[in-house]
Amino acid sequence: MIVRSPVPYILILAISGLLAFMPFFASGFQMAFAIGCLNYAVLATAWGLFSGPTRYVSLASVVFFGIGSYTVAVLGEVLPWPVILLISALIGGGVALIVGLATLRLAGIYFVIFTFGLSEMVRQLVTWYEVNVTRSIGRYIFLDITQPQIFWQLLGLLAVVLIGAVALQRSRLGFALRVIGGDETMARHFGLNPTFAKLGLFTASSAIMALAGAIMAPRWTYIDPAIAFNATLSFQVVIMALLGGMHRIYGPLLGAVLMSFLFEALGSQFPQAFSLLLGLVFIVIVYLLPNGIIGRIEELFALKRAVPQSTREGERT
Amino acid sequence: MTGTIMRVNGIRKAFGGLVAVDDVSFDLMPGEIMGLIGPNGSGKTTTMNLISGAFALDRGTIELHGEPISGLPANKVAHKGVARTFQLLRLIEEMTVLENAVVGMAFQPGRSWNAAMIARSREYLEVVGLADKAGVEVSKLTYIDQKRLELARALAMEPKVLLLDEWLAGLNATELLSGIEVIRKIRDLGTAIIMVEHVMSAIHSLCDRCVVMNAGAKIAEGTPAAVLTDPHVVEAYLGEPHHA
């Protein structure tokens, strides 16, 4: 239970270190694909960070992603880049804190509905503000940030998030989250405050999503509320995490990489039927891989190792 | 009275129009096993839930070592040193036996997250006789072993007061004997115990004192032998003589 091996940290650093050389030989198309893939990987991993242990399904990913993008659109030419990143993370985390305080006492299904409603509400609010106050629905982002720079930032963010996730899993808080995910009522009776733990994690996960949104913003040059707060993104993130397996740190990452290839293939081969095929993929995942690919692999290994247990089922009264 | 470890004073809890616990008071002495008995629906489990902070009280106070714990949420009550088991087992199935035991110790004040804490939690698996199954996943355990684990987890809190909610229910004759031994061992380690129980043989052999409840109210208190022959108690369990 107490693990101190540095191997996962070294692996994460080594692999991201190697990937960092990619911009020196990759084509523009490959870079664009890699950036999209990294963005999904960050979002899905951040999503899994909160939803994996707590089993709360959030459909609000795009809220925080969009907040990050809008922070850049508004402040992009006013403040230095690191400050903008910091502010976007703070706003994303702050909104998550308020939303979390109001909703994390809600049970499963109500939380899902609320987070979905939230993304619609935020989109409408921003639209209303732009129409009535700034009197212009879209914004332009002209920042001197190159494609490789976006790539490196996302790669760095992903590495930090993964290292944080491993550290969290090994910590007492990580254990607490597993207990809370297992049985919240019981957890209270053993000294845990589930609301506090869930709130902290939701805030951290949302701040990461806002950072991803901010880092991605310069790629767009133009954003409006419909682009920045497109609810499809929230669903894509959930599908990715489910495909890989949301109960393991690397599950959402695996799902994000596979899905990015699938999106690319579907988008280029069947641009008209993209949404339809995506829906089919979602159904297939839920039916055939309820615990994701990693869950299925673990089941196969468990079957191999299974030895007859001396259970005494018959004596149950 | 000085020397009481827990004092329950005039507690009341109503759910809508149903008064589940009505003006119940009792004291718990250090190192004592107190039985909380009564017919089904008499408010025993609700009383346990009030003590452990699962529900808020309508009225009354509960003190632990003279310090009020009523009004605190369940996690704070746990920090003060009140542990409980659940009538319907609440273990985490996908965790191992040891991990479940660690749940009891890990979140108590002053505990560090290290190997020593894990080792100390493991000692409580020994107390209940589960040490050799530490690495087994809970879903693979038998019913009696799951009950033992439920107890080990509560013990790992190293509580001042332990609340056992029908911990002996559903055990066969042999298991019951070993269950009674385990409870006696815990008392000898110095933990005061309140046990809700229907198994009369266990009440007779374990309890120093019993509080009997009926329809939410306390109707008798004394040694098991005395209260179980009390006419009010007999009537509560079996009905009035002329109706019988």
Automatic annotation (TrEMBL), chain A:
Entry coiled-coil feature ranges: none
Superkingdom to which the source organism belongs: Bacteria
GO molecular function: branched-chain amino acid transmembrane transporter activity
Regions that span the bilayer: 7-25, 31-50, 57-75, 81-102, 109-129, 149-168, 196-216, 222-242, 249-267, 273-294
Pfam families per UniProt: BPD_transp_2 (PF02653)
Subcellular location: Cell membrane
Membrane topology: Multi-pass membrane protein
GO CC annotations on file: plasma membrane
UniProt keyword terms in alphabetical order: Cell membrane, Membrane, Transmembrane, Transmembrane helix
Protein name from the UniProt record: Amino acid/amide ABC transporter membrane protein 2, HAAT family
Organism (species): Lutimaribacter pacificus
Automatic annotation (TrEMBL), chain B:
GO BP annotations, alphabetical order: D-alanine transmembrane transport; L-alanine transport; L-isoleucine import across plasma membrane; L-valine import across plasma membrane
A Pfam family the protein falls into: ABC_tran
Molecular function GO terms recorded: ATP binding; ATP hydrolysis activity; L-isoleucine transmembrane transporter activity; L-phenylalanine transmembrane transporter activity; L-valine transmembrane transporter activity
One Gene Ontology term, aspect cellular component: plasma membrane
Transmembrane segments: none
Alphabetical UniProt keywords: ATP-binding, Nucleotide-binding, Transport
Source domain of life: Bacteria
PROSITE patterns recorded: ABC_TRANSPORTER_2
Limits of the ABC transporter domain: 6-240
PANTHER family reported in the protein's UniProt record: AMINO ACID ABC TRANSPORTER ATP-BINDING PROTEIN (PTHR45772:SF7), CONSERVED COMPONENT OF ABC TRANSPORTER FOR NATURAL AMINO ACIDS-RELATED (PTHR45772)
UniProt-recorded name of the protein: Amino acid/amide ABC transporter ATP-binding protein 1, HAAT family
Organism taxonomic ancestry: Bacteria, Pseudomonadati, Pseudomonadota, Alphaproteobacteria, Rhodobacterales
